[in-house]
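Notes, Module 5: Reading structure tokens.

Key idea: the token line is not a picture. It is a compressed description, and you learn to read it the same way you learned to read a sequence, by spotting repeated patterns. We will look at two proteins. The first is printed below with its tokens.
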Amino acid sequence: MEKKVIKLSQQYFVNMLIFLLILLSLIVSRSSFIAQEYKSIFMWVYNIVLTLGCFMVIFKHETVDESAEKVLNRVNNIIWLVIRIGLLVLAVVVGAPMFKEKIDLSRDAISVIILLFLFLLTFLKYILFVYYDRKGL
């Protein structure tokens, strides 16, 4: 029996969707502009997609060949640069005394900022991988 093989780009896309759904569920649970009956529907969709994402572990993942390894190396270098810049900006905004007086950030706001940053990282990794994979090195 042949196992289903999941491509790397599909893996990155699923990771991106998981972070998006976690971010949206946090925003929906904290917001007051969405009616209560729609919140439960959204949570069901979130749970189903999260379960499907967890089942992705069962399938065999694509082996990384030489060209994909080079693409991943380039993409990871770009992602690490973005992570360093993002964490530096977050540390300055959250930790600097001059910003604490002007910007009042709650724990929920900081968690939404971090989740948004993680979603942007996974989205950027997916887009860069697909771009460099099609373009070639």
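Here is the second protein, with the sequence above and the tokens below, as before.
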Amino acid sequence: MKKKTLCLLLVLVLTMGLTATFSFADSIGNGDASTYATASVGFATKRISDTKAAASVNVDFTAKADSYVVAIVLQKKTNSGWVTATDVAGSAHYYRGTNSTDVVTYDTWTVKKGVVYRIKCVSTDSYDSGIEYKRTSYSEPF
């Protein structure tokens, strides 16, 4: 009887320990950053005229982000590659928030005639579990 009680107590203790371990792992997404991430980034860009451009960016997170920062940066094409269009007023816009599963932005710029541009989107979503995920995406040139 003593042996049976001891075995039952041991099984109970081990079971409780495993349950606590699995509960903790689930609460942090099994420690896998892919559980929390920027799921997708969609762009809608338009050259309204030779000197006016607009862009809408839709960022979807895989879970409700406890906090996020989405940076929308206008870049221009040069001989050496893509650079931030610092000669355009308001070339960078930042969207910050909390408790969201997605972010939709809309920005317009007065651009230079004959210059090719694109949007660089840097999305950072953070979670109370301590996980932070960062994704950089680019639109098609316009």
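Summary for the second protein:
- The two ends are 80 Å apart (CA to CA).
- Helices lie at 2-27.
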